[in-house]
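Subject: Sanity check before I submit

Could someone independently write out the C-alpha cells for this chain? I want to compare against mine line by line before I put it in a report. The sequence has 219 residues.
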Amino acid sequence: MNPLTWLLAKLRRTSTPSGLIPQPSALTPVPVTPPALLTEAEREARQQQRNLDFELALVEDFNQALREGRNLADEPPAELLRAMCLLRYNWADQEQARQWGQWAEQLRLEVEAQALEAAATYHGWRHSLLQSFGHTIGTKLSQHQIEPGMTLDMVLAAFGTPTQVQDLSADNPNLYILRYGSVETGSVIELHYGIVARASVGSVAFPEHVYDWPGASSS
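---
Independent answer below. Compare away.
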C-alpha cells in the first residue's frame, strides 16, 4: 500500500467538544434611534458582568455534572467554554452594530472575534489531545514536542498531514520519514514500524483538521 494512503487512512479527526456553553440573552428590541456606542469604562463594566455570568453558569454546570456523575476529566476546559461564551456575545454585538451601520464598531468586534476564535480553536484541539493520549503526552503534543517512542497517531494528531512522505523501505524495511513545511525551517520525523525513532522539529503550525470542528467557526 502506498505509505501516504496508509497515513491518511490513520489520520484521526478531532471531536467537537460537548457540554454546556453559556448562551447570551437575545438581543433587546431595536430602539427607534441608534444606541450610543459604549465608552471604554462602560464596555469594561459590561465585560466584567459577562464574565461573572459565565462563572455562575460554569459553577452550575459543574454542580450538574456532579449530580449526574459525569467524568469531570471529559468535560471541556473552562478556557474553551469561556471563549465560546464570549464569542456568542460578540456575534450578537456584531449583529447589532450591523443593524445600525456602526461600521467602526463592527470592525473592532471582528478583530476581537478573531482572537476569541483562535483561543477556542487552540483549547478545543488541546482538549482533544488530552482525551486521546492522556495529560502528559497530550500536553507535549499540544506544544509540538515529538519524542522517540511516540506513535504515528500522535504525530498526525499534533502535526496533521505531512507535506511529504519519504519511503525508505527499499533500503530499510518499514522505515519512512515525514516532512512538514519547508526544507529550511520545517520538521523531519523518522518512524520505524510506526514508532518515532528521531525527530527534528522546526517551525510548526496547527494541523488543518484542528479547524474542522464546528465550534471553531461562527458560521
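---
OP: Matches mine. For the report I'm noting this point. Residues 140 and 204 are 14 Å apart (CA to CA).
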